[in-house]
Amino acid sequence: MSGEAATSGPSAYLAIAFSSRDASAATRLRVALAEVAPGARVVRSRAGVAAALHELDGDPIDSRAHAEALRARVGQVTGDSDVSAGVGGPKQGTTGAHLALLQAEQAVVVGRALNGDGRVTHFDDLGPYVFVLGRPESDIREFADRILGPLADDDRYTDLVRTLES
User: Fold this and answer.
1) What is the residue extent of each domain of the chain?
2) What is the pLDDT of residues 35-52, one digit of tens each?
3) Are 99 and 88 in contact (CB under 8 A)?
4) pLDDT at 3
């Protein structure tokens, strides 16, 4: 097995953070999360947020469905159906794991403010809000390529591209 791990590159990580309207619920969230997701590492709980890190095994995962299932189970264990979840990643390697955790924590906080309680918010769905959340330059470029790239590739939008460049 160790030979396979060495040739397959760094592990990928998905982070999911949970939050409740009750700011003192971080400990309850942490305990519930450890119970419903025993394979995950519950790595942080602070300021009413508990976050877990999932090391992905290479199989595709529907992060939204996974987060929603965990959110519902954490809600059942804590007796709080309004528990919210934020998803970060997947990201590669240990540095990526840290970034995924930050993204998940930011997604749950901003998601609750935008969408209300009891929902799952993926960091990638925060749109323009990500620019105020201290994203690394590489992520800003990726976002610009994904959102603005089609404009640059279409001759009908040449004037818009010039405006954005100035």
Assistant:
1) 2-126, 136-166
2) 998 888 887 777 788 999
3) yes
4) 40
> d(Cα 126, Cα 18) in Å, to the nearest integer?
17
Cα–Cα dist 114/92, whole Å: 28
pTM higher than the cut 0.90: no
Q: What is the DSSP string of 103-129?
A: HHHHHHHHHHHHH-SS-EEEGGGGGGG
Query: Two tokens at 85?
Result: 């979840």
Q: Could you tell me which residues come within 8 angstroms of residue 84 by beta carbon, excluding any fewer than 6 positions away?
A: 18, 19, 20, 71, 108, 111, 112, 117, 118, 119, 120, 121
Give the sheet arrangement for strand 84-92, strand by strand.
41-46, 49-56, 12-19, 84-92, 120-122
* CATH class in words for 2-126: alpha beta
Contacting residues for 135 by C-beta, under 8 A, at least 6 apart = 143
